[in-house]
């Protein structure tokens, strides 16, 4: 009688059909599993930023040149920005076959000279790029498009606005609303310039930041939206010391994008002025 009382499934089955075991799953298991996996990620893992505000801390900047990607590095001996090939050339008569090089998205820095420390300007979408080796010089660009890294102090010429493109690559716009680009000079040498009006192949870079700074940026952005956060500061000196232990198709930027960048820059300066005024009013109240 007890067997007859059992409720039978109304699902149709066919001869030879494999039976699948049902797996009980608690509510929210997928969410917890994803969160646990994220927490287990190494804080110093190099990842791609998805938003401009995630670009901060130690940064690896690579241009997808052919036949070898080019890395933006800094020579502390000559105090000059240098573009180095990531793949060393092999002689034609090499006995052993060359190993398959890693893809550009698998690349990570192998020397401190390849790392730039990025800090953000308070209340503004602009950033500063500082060398991760030597005395810590700022990347700057003058009105003629000449790029250098020989200044100890930051000013308007040391400000850059990162633009994350739809494919995940990044363009850097300077204070003159021109873009950083890779240029070939006499003799086939490569150099950086900052006088491009459009974002094309030469102006597009892959950049990687460390996961812990990307995570901090997202937490800070969330708290900003809730109105309960102060800007997080990057310890440039500590970061520099830490990392010294390391051994042409063209896409035109639309007028709407340029207007949006101008608006963001204007709003950033306005927000900074409002914060200063609010702090002054608060201090006057307690005086």
From TrEMBL:
The annotated region (Disordered) lies at 1-47
Tagged with keyword Cell cycle: no
GO molecular-function term, one example from the UniProt record: actin filament binding
According to its UniProt record, where is this protein mainly located? nucleus
The UniProt keyword set, sorted, is:
Nucleus
Question: Where does this protein have compositionally biased stretches of type Basic and acidic residues?
Answer: 25-44
Q: Which InterPro entries match?
A: Actin-crosslinking (IPR008999), FRG1 (IPR010414)
Would you say which domain of life the source belongs to? Eukaryota
Q: Name one GO cellular component term.
A: catalytic step 2 spliceosome
Q: Which Pfam families does its entry note?
A: FRG1
What SUPFAM superfamilies does this protein's entry cite? Actin-crosslinking proteins (SSF50405)
Query: Which subcellular locations apply to this protein?
Result: Nucleus, Nucleolus
Q: Which family does it belong to?
A: Belongs to the FRG1 family.
Protein name as annotated: FRG1-like family-domain-containing protein
What organism is the protein native to? Answer: Mycena maculata
């Amino acid at each position: 009688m007890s067997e007859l009382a059992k409720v039978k499934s109304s699902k149709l089955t066919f001869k030879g059909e494999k039976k699948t075991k049902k797996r009980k799953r608690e509510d929210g298991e997928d969410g917890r599993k994803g969160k646990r996996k994220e927490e287990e990620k190494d804080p110093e893992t190099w990842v791609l930023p998805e938003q401009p505000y995630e670009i901060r801390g130690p940064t690896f900047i690579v241009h997808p040149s052919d036949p070898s990607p080019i890395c933006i590095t800094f020579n502390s001996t000559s105090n000059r920005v240098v573009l180095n090939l990531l793949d060393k050339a092999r002689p034609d008569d090499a006995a052993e076959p060359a190993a398959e090089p890693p893809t550009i998205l698998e690349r990570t820095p192998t020397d401190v000279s390849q790392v730039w420390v990025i800090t953000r300007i308070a209340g503004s979408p602009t950033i500063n790029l500082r060398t991760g080796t030597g005395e810590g010089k700022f990347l700057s660009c003058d009105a003629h498009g000449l790029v250098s890294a020989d200044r100890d102090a930051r000013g308007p010429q040391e400000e850059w606005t990162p633009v994350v493109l739809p494919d995940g690559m990044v363009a850097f716009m300077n204070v003159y609303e021109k873009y950083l680009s890779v240029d070939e000079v006499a003799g086939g040498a490569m150099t950086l310039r900052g006088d491009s009006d459009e974002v094309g192949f030469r102006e597009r870079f892959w950049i990687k930041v460390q996961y812990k700074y990307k995570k901090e940026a997202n937490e800070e952005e969330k708290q900003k939206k809730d109105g309960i956060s102060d800007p997080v500061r990057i310890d440039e000196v500590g970061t520099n010391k830490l990392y010294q232990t390391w051994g042409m198709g063209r896409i035109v930027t639309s007028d709407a994008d340029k207007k949006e960048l101008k608006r963001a820059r204007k709003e950033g300066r306005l927000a900074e002025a409002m914060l200063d005024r609010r702090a002054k009013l608060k201090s006057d109240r307690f005086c």
